[in-house]
Amino acid sequence: MQTSHSQRCALCNESLTGKNLSKEHIIPNAIGGRKKTTGFICNTCNNTRGERWDSELAKQLNWFSLAVGISRERGEPPKQLVQTIEGDKYWLLSDGSFTPEKSSYAEEDQGGAIKISMTAKTIEEAKARLKGVSRKYPKLDLEKALNELQIKTDYLDSPLHVSLSLGGPDAGRSLVKTAFAFASACGVAHSECDKALQYLLDESLDAIPFGFSYLSDFIQNRPKEKIFHCVSLHGDPKTQKLWSYIEYFGIFRVVVLLSDSYKGPYNSEIYTVDPIDGSAVDVKVKSNISAEELALIWSGNGWNQENHMAAADYALPIIMARGRSRTLERAVKEGFDHAAKQLGIKEGEEIPKEVAAEFTAFMMEKLSPYIHHLVTSGRSSSGNRGLSPIVC
Predict the structure, then answer these.
(1) Which residues contact 249 (CB under 8 A, 6 or more apart)?
(2) What is the C-alpha separation between 10 and 6, in angstroms, rounded?
(3) CA quadruple 167, 169, 170, 172: dihedral positive or negative?
(4) Distance of alpha carbon 84 from the chain centroid
(5) Residue among 333, 329, 260 nearest 294 (CA)
(6) Helix locations, 62-122, DSSP H
(7) Quick one: CA dihedral 310, 311, 316, 317, positive or negative?
(8) Are 159 and 84 in contact (CB under 8 A)?
(9) CA-to-CA separations, 246 to 11, 163, 165, 213, 251, in angstroms, rounded
(10) CA atoms of 99 and 120, how far apart (whole Å)
(11) Which stretches does DSSP call E strand in the chain?
C-alpha cells in the first residue's frame, strides 16, 4: 500500500499541519476499525462532519457491535434498548448481557411489618434505593440488606427483533468517506475521487455514488466462522472507474463509485479487520466484476432479497455463536466469584483441596440457570440460543 502525500484537507482544502493534522480511522473505530490515515482531512472537518456521519452509522450498527463485543479505543458501545417478539424490553449492555428496561419497587403491609420487594437494573442502583428506603424506615438493618443483595441471572426465551437496515444521508456519507479515506491512504490524489468529493461536500446532492451490493458475493475465500469489516480499492484506467467495496459485519455490503473518469494506474488494495480483536482477516475482493453488475449497483438495482437473506444466514449464526460464548464466560466467572466469596477465598489465592467439592457446589448455584435455560429451550451448548434475532 502506498502512502498519501497530500498536504491539504480533502474537504476544506486547509493545510494539514500541526494541531490541524488529523489521524482519521479508515473504518470508524466506533464499530471496531483500527487503521488510521493522515493526509486526508483536518481535525476541524473530522470533528464536525466526519464525526456526525460516523456517529449515525455506528448508531445504526450498534446492535451488532454489542452482540459480538467489539473493542475500540475510547469507551464501549452504548447500551441499546431491544425488544423480544413477545414485547418485553431490555437494555443490551456492552458485555452482551441484558438488564430490564425498568426497575420495580413495591411495599406490602403484612400485619404491621412492611415487606419490600424491588428489582434494579444494576447493583449500584439497588444500593442507592436501599439507602433511600432506610431513611424512610430507620429500623431497617441497612448493612444486612446490602450484604443480602444478589444478582439474579435469567436468560431470554423469546427471540429478539433486529433490524438489518442501513441508510440515510449521514450513514451514507460515512460509507463514502471510508472509501475516500482508504483511497487517500493508498496514494490516490483527492482530485481523482471526484464523485466522492462532490457527494461529501454537497449535502443537497441527489446523485448518490454508492449502492447496496447483493447481486453476487464479492468476497473470495469467505471465512465460515468469522465476521469481519473490509474496504477495498479498485482502479482501472481502461474503464476509467475507481471504486470501493465495503462490508460490515458480514451483512452490510456496499459498492462506492469514487470516480468514473479515473486516469491513474491500475489499483487493487484491501484492508480487513476483525472488529473483536483488531486482527487482519485473510480474504480477497474480486476485481473482475462486470461493468453491467457495477452499473446496476450504482443505479440502485443491486438489491436481491434472496442474496440479502443468504448474507444474514451467513453472519447471524456467527454472531449468535459469539453471544453464546460470551454468555458461558460470564456464567463461569459469576459462579467462580460467587464460590470464592462464600468461602472467603481472596483474588489470587489458590483453592484449598479440602473445599474443592464445596467450591464446585457454590459455582453450580450460578451456573444452574444457564444450564437450565439450555435444557428447557431444547438447545445444546453448540446449538442456537434463545437470543436468536428475528430479521425485520
Answers:
(1) 31, 61, 64, 68, 227, 229, 275, 315, 319
(2) 9
(3) positive
(4) 19
(5) 260
(6) 62-68
(7) positive
(8) yes
(9) 21, 19, 15, 9, 10
(10) 9
(11) 24-25, 36-37, 80-83, 89-92, 98-100, 104-110, 113-119, 160-162, 210-212, 219-220, 229-236, 241-248, 252-259, 267-273, 284-285, 389-391
What does the block give as the cell for 205?
Answer: 446532492
Task: Retrieve residue 109's grid coordinates.
Answer: 403491609
Of 247, 262, 264, 256, nearest in space to 207 by CA:
256
Contact 186, 267 (CB under 8 A): yes
Please tell me whether residue 82 adopts helix, strand or coil conformation: strand
Q: Quote the cell numbers at residue 108.
A: 406490602
Rounded CA-CA distance 361/350 in Å is 17
Q: How many other C-beta atoms lie within 10 A of the C-beta of residue 7?
A: 11
Taking only the tens place, the pLDDT of each residue in 344-365 is 998 889 999 999 999 999 999 8
Q: What sign does the CA torsion over 51, 183, 169, 167 have?
A: negative
Write the CA distances from 49 to 13, 24, 55, 246, 372, integer angstroms.
14, 12, 10, 20, 49
pLDDT tens string 109-124: 887 777 777 777 777 8
Question: What are residue 36's phi and psi, to 5 degrees?
Answer: -115, 160
Pick the most confident of 66-70, 83-87, 149-153.
Answer: 66-70
pLDDT of residue 205: 80
Contact between 170 and 53 under an 8 Å Cβ cutoff? The reply is yes
Chain segment 234-262, per-residue pLDDT in tens: 999 999 999 999 999 999 999 999 999 99
CB 24 within 8 A of CB 35: no
Cell 458461558 found at: 328
Q: Shortest CA distance to 288 belongs to which of 239, 250, 249?
A: 239
Contacts of 201 (CB under 8 A, 6+ apart): 11
In this model, does residue 149 exceed pLDDT 60? Answer: yes
Reported as type and span, the H/E element at residue 160 is: strand 160-162
Contact 286, 220 (CB under 8 A): yes
Q: Which residue has the cell 493508498?
A: 186
CB 351 within 8 A of CB 124: no
pLDDT of residue 57: 97
